[in-house]
UniProtKB/TrEMBL annotation:
An example molecular function term from Gene Ontology annotations: metal ion binding
Organism taxonomic ancestry: Bacteria, Pseudomonadati, Bacteroidota, Bacteroidia, Marinilabiliales
Coiled coil: none
Taxonomic superkingdom: Bacteria
Signal peptide: 1-21
Name assigned to this protein: ATPase
Amino acid sequence: MKTKVLSLVTLFVMGAFTVFAGNKTEKIKVYGNCGMCENRIEKAVKAVDGVSKADWDKETKMLEVTFDDTKTNIHKVHMAVAAVGHDTDMHKAKDEVYDKLPSCCKYDRTAEAKTEEGHEGHMH
């Protein structure tokens, strides 16, 4: 009897480990402005196979995404965001897609470029 119970417990633990083993949570910078941006970004990310959660904060511009890393990767998440017109640190949206965003959703791309330049132009 003890071996049957021990076997069941072992199978349960292994099954639970398998379910949670592939889940990964990452935070990425996504440029946008408003609630419409939030809906668009989260919808695009949730459409990626393997993504279970997407939450974009319009104040911090940070997207928290939880995904199964056996089905997808963070690169595909960045690509999905860029495909709907929003730049990330890894991918820039195509100009023609960005240009189709509503005016309230058009973030300042020049400010974004300034933050990515690096350390040129100043002394340490």
